[in-house]
Design brief:
- By secondary structure, this protein is an all-alpha fold.
- It has one domain.
- Helix content is about 80%, strand content about 0%.
- It contains three helices and no strands.
- The mean pLDDT is about 95.
């Protein structure tokens, strides 16, 4: 028994995801700045709830180090 999909199935799968992506783009365009700020506030509130603080801090440090390196390479 083969798990391979046919070309037709692959094209249908791709088309469905294109439709999903377009619907998401439209939804994001309709989202107001106020709604986006509310969503950001909720996400930031989850940092402590899900104990993401240390992971985010590590990423922040990494990004800052990359910016410093980039500035140095660009002589800025």
């Amino acid at each position: 028994m083969s798990n391979r999909i046919t070309k037709e199935e692959a094209l249908k799968f791709k088309k469905r995801w294109e439709m999903v992506n377009e619907a998401e783009r439209q939804e994001l365009r309709k989202t107001t700045a106020k709604q986006k700020l509310q969503q950001l506030t909720v996400l930031m509130g989850w940092v402590d709830d899900f104990r993401w603080g240390s992971a985010l801090k590590a990423e922040e440090i990494e990004v800052r180090e990359l910016w410093i390196k980039l500035k140095r390479l660009c002589h800025v």
